[in-house]
Amino acid sequence: MKNFGKRLSLILVLFIFALLSACGNDSTETSEEQSGTETEASEKELSIAQINWAENIAVTNMWKVILGDKGYNVDLTVLDMGATMMALERGELDASLEIWLPVQDANYLKEYQDTVDFSESTWFDNAKVGLVVPTYLEEVNSVKDLNAHKELFEGQIIGFDPGAGTMEITEQLIEDYNLEFELLPSSEPAMLTEIGNAVENEEPIVAPLWSPHWIFSNYDLKFLEDEQNTFGDVEKIHHATRQGFKDDYPEISEWFSNWKMNDQQIGELINYVENADEPLVGAEQWVEENQDLIDEWVK
After folding, report:
1. Residue 291: its pLDDT value, please?
2. Nearest-10 crossing angle of helices 54-69, 263-275
């Protein structure tokens, strides 16, 4: 009986040990499965910078919809241009969808070309930047005309986001032409409100603007001639990504490179986004109605 008791005790110990080992293996397997799930989930997470400019809001929401349909969860992080570039350099952002070259964002290209990947591909090839005034100001047609009408404008150029490449070029323009004007920074919505109020009251105003932009379909505005070409000629819009993005997301990198829009397409997209209750709702409607175009990008 004593030997039987010893054998029974030994069997019980072995059984308990086997049970604990099985539990441990299950726990390890569960942990590995969870780790794999988390890795897979993280590979579907993207962070894209959004700048509060009409066309930027439009295209970032458009890509949020397109990538969402492909199973990606896209976080749009609102930043100004300077903060966007620093975040890309640190790897805190995956992409910025709006880099104007060769002039407007040349300073950012120069500073970050070794630490941020700027695309060679462009998604818009016919952009224009310059100072604009309402068309009813018939006596003002060139940047050189501004000093002669300084009092008309109270010596002020109404600007938008400080740190934007176009704002820095406008400061350079003031220096190049020896303008007796001050550039007043604000935000794009504030600047557009000022332009709208001025036009409705047929008052003078001068501001830096760019095309494509919905405001040209709302108000009669004209670009001032820039004889010294400070703003440059035709601008092209690129995108930029953090280093390593192409390796992590080769498929999306190819889609971004395939992305092309013309004046009509970007104008319509901006209009949909501007007039919707929420930007994403407008982008969803535009994407749904332009699936053939999008299929050319994400083929």
Report:
1. 97
2. 90
**Grouped pLDDT means (10 residues each) for the chain, 299 residues:** 46 46 48 46 84 94 98 96 96 97 94 98 95 98 98 97 93 98 96 97 97 89 97 95 97 98 92 95 98 96
Reference 228, options 108, 124, 131; nearest CA is 131
C-alpha 119/C-alpha 185 separation (Å) is 29
DSSP per-residue codes, 59-118? HHHHHHHHHHHTT-EEEEEE--HHHHHHHHHHTS-SEEEEEEETTTTHHHHHHHTTTEEE
What pTM value is reported for the model? 0.76
Domains located in the chain, CATH noted: 44-125+236-297 (3.40.190.10), 126-223 (3.40.190.100)
Other C-beta atoms lying within 10 Å of the C-beta of residue 193: 13
Whole-number pLDDT of residue 217: 83
DSSP character string of 126-166: EEEEEEEEETT-TT--BGGGTGGGTTTTTTEEE---TT-HH
CA–CA distance, 103 with 108 (Å, rounded to integer): 10
**CB contact set of 137 (below 8 Å; sequence gap of 6+):** 204
Contacts 24+ apart (CB under 8 A), 104-112: 104/129, 104/165, 104/166, 104/169, 104/210, 104/231, 104/232, 104/235, 105/81, 105/165, 106/165, 107/165, 107/168, 108/81, 108/165, 111/85, 112/85, 112/88, 112/240
DSSP summary character for residue 285:
H
What's the CA angle centered on 216, arms 212 and 220, to 5 degrees? 155
